[in-house]
Design goal:
The complex is a heterodimer.
Chain A lengths: L9 E5 L4 H12 L4 E5 L10 H6 L7 E4 L2 E4 L1 H11 L11 H16 L1 H19 L5 H23 L12 H11 L13 H14 L1 H20 L1
Helix pairs in contact in A: 1-3, 1-7, 1-9, 4-5, 4-7, 5-6
Chain B lengths: L2 E5 L4 H12 L4 E5 L10 H6 L7 E4 L2 E4 L1 H11 L11 H13 L4 H18 L6 H23 L12 H14 L10 H14 L1 H12 L1 H5 L5 H4 L2 H8 L1
Parallel strand pairs in B: 1-2
Antiparallel strand pairs in B: 1-3, 3-4
Helix pairs in contact in B: 1-3, 1-7, 1-9, 4-7, 5-6, 5-7, 8-9
Classes of the chains: A alpha+beta, B alpha+beta.
């Protein structure tokens, strides 16, 4: 890389209604990584625009662009940023066994926390809003039961008696998990209400990241409040 | 004390860990586990992995699940050649990008085909509705298209000129539907050429050794004792159909 090249801040394409986008937003703000946010409104189909499709043919967010280097997949982006920038090491520890715990959760997350939590939001908020039809209560009941099983696993397999999912300190794993589990709040549903250890974990995460938590979730809270006002 | 790897070579992520360990001459004790017999739910295995999935690793007191985590851990601990999981930030990100995407794409769709074509009809004796089969085949086709067009593109391997963990994790998933008798390479010259390169980089002998179990699945299924799987039948049906 020549010294003549201008290296600007990293650009991130986000919609704060999206869980992985929020996890990324929190890390960027909490760890004070210089960045520029470019909003992509999923609701308006902006992820399908010719401009965005050129950037990411899969039409998904988040996308990171670091001076020409384009990267998709929130897990890859979080790990890239935690490695490249001078962030506190706890986010993605270097010690092999500690790092392995984070890698273990971020892998498991894809087929467990993420799909099961998303499904509840989709059935309760997204589908009914988009189609105008009522909530399919049978499918929702099934989805809630499946999520409940996943929450039990989260508690017994990962959190156990630790303060955070991967040990004594907060990591990118906690950000990914908490943002997923906040999503059903958009429909005014707190999925952790029957899981006191997970509620306490969520409070610890909120404390650890400070203002960046509510900043990232402002859009989700607004959605919840708008829906409540309509009822 | 030697590292233990708990593996069932019918399982794709077990194969990627097996190939990686063997290729890099990592000393390990092969602890065979039979997933179809439900051994992952046993008391013994619960001590190794609370997550109750294979592959699992035990290195002294340290236990680990999830193949992606295991592969990273082994690469770091045994200082395997850089190309597997490059230190270069951009290249590593490309590998991580693939490893992240694949969970709910190729992995899911390839697995589903194997279950719908082979395990569900042949072991559980349940008919799979044609529309479910068609949808599953369509999903797999879409994932394979993305593998070719977005990840491999015109490069020899996913991360560039050399094989990496991304190709290893991809190839074992692509081979799974093959075990159910579906020729995924038919009409896909680009995928075939990539498969040949990956096989050559791994070494044909090791590649064949790892895949022997899955490629004989169709024959073995007819002699398999279905009774142990019956207890999982309702969950399997509700998940896949």
């Amino acid at each position: 890389m020549s010294t003549a090249e201008v290296r600007g801040p990293v650009e991130v394409y986000l919609d704060l209604l999206s869980q992985p986008c929020r996890a990324l937003h929190i890390l960027l703000n909490c760890a004070k990584i210089p960045h520029k946010v470019r909003t992509v409104a999923l609701r308006k189909g902006e992820n399908k625009s010719p401009h965005f499709t050129k950037l990411n043919p899969m039409q998904k967010i988040p996308v990171m662009v670091d001076n020409g280097f384009i990267l998709t997949e929130s897990v890859a982006i979080l790990k890239y940023l935690a490695t490249k920038y001078d962030v506190p090491e706890h986010w993605y520890p270097r010690q092999p066994e500690k790092r392995a715990r984070v890698d273990e959760y971020t892998a498991w997350h894809h087929s467990n926390t993420r799909p099961h939590s998303t499904k509840v939001f989709i059935l309760e908020v997204l589908f009914p809003t988009q189609s105008g039809s009522p909530v399919d209560s049978m499918r929702l009941t099934r989805a809630l039961s499946e999520l409940d099983d996943t929450l039990d696993k989260l508690e017994t397999m990962f959190l156990r008696r630790q303060p955070f999912l991967c040990g004594d300190d907060i990591t990118v794993a906690d950000l990914l998990a908490v943002c997923e589990l906040m999503q059903p709040l958009g429909g005014d549903r707190d999925v952790l209400q029957n899981h006191p250890p997970l509620q306490r974990w969520r409070t610890r995460v909120q404390s650890a990241v400070g203002d960046s938590f509510n900043q990232a979730h402002a859009v989700l809270y607004a959605l919840r409040d708008r829906r409540k006002a309509k009822l | 004390m030697v590292l233990e790897l708990y593996l069932d070579l019918n399982s794709q992520p077990c194969r990627s860990v097996y190939i990686f360990a063997k290729k890099n001459n990592i000393p390990f004790d092969f602890q065979k586990i039979s997933l179809l017999d439900g051994e992952q739910y046993g008391e013994e295995f619960g001590k190794i992995s609370l997550i109750r999935k294979a592959p699992a690793l035990r290195d002294g007191d340290f236990c680990l699940a999830e193949s992606i985590a295991i592969l990273h851990y082994l690469a770091e601990k045994f200082k395997t050649p850089d190309f597997w999981f490059p230190v270069d930030l951009h290249q590593r990100a490309r590998v991580n990008e693939y490893l992240s995407w694949q969970h709910m794409a190729l992995r899911m769709h390839g697995s589903r085909i194997f279950w719908l074509r082979l395990l569900i009809p042949k072991i559980l004796g349940v008919d799979v509705p044609q529309d479910k089969m068609d949808a599953a085949l369509d999903d797999l086709k879409h994932s394979l298209n993305l593998l070719e067009e977005k990840f491999i593109q015109d490069k020899p391997f996913i991360a560039g000129d050399q094989i990496s963990l991304a190709d290893l994790v991809a190839i074992v998933e692509v081979m799974q539907p093959l075990g159910s008798g579906l020729d995924v390479f038919e009409d896909r010259p680009k995928l075939s050429a990539w498969r040949d390169r990956v096989e050559a980089a791994i070494g044909k002998e090791l590649f064949d050794d790892a895949h022997q179990t899955i490629l004989t699945a169709q024959e073995r299924v007819s002699t398999m004792d279905a009774s142990k799987m019956q207890v999982f039948k309702p969950k399997i049906i509700s998940f896949f159909l």
